[in-house]
Fold this protein.
Amino acid sequence: MKKFILLTIVGLCSAPWLSSASAQTIKKTPILGAIQENVMISGELIGGKSNHIIVSKAHEHPYSHQIVVSVIDGKFQLALPAGDSEAHMLIPEENFDAGFLRPFVVFVDENVYVTLHPSERYLENTTLGSPLTDEYHRAKADIEQRLSKRSFEVDSLWKLVEAGKVMEEEAAKKDSALGADYLTLQEAYIREHPTLVSYQLIKELLITN
């Protein structure tokens, strides 16, 4: 399985459009004396008890590289340099403290408004103003939806393993096959969509595997 993942990443990283996508993430060089433009990540936190939102670049670990943004009356706001289209993770403080991160990925290509929900309600998170962010979450949701039935079956198998009713090897085999098919679908999306969204998906493969 690891060999399959490595070959997938190597093949995708050799794509001719990757260098141009990577170049788009480079920040503009500040000009002395010039007024630097910013883009804004603003939004609201619905429910929960967080006083802060933890923000970090999506390819960095939030425990070691983070910006702490205050939540005041349920609202938060963060200015970032314009020209930096990298993806960032937003994590409610209570998720962060509990180790249940569930980061919400946002691209700062434009001003973006984010509605966050803590804990198990993270699936209700939404954004306005960032087509890249919308496409990223749409792409991931589509893949997960196509594999949802098998994913449920694999989760059920692991519960049977814990109950001693199914051999671990059977669950591991189906789990591995599911993971390989997820990567195949993700690879197909990346090859068909040479965008910063695909570049972010490749970085996630490198980080998680």
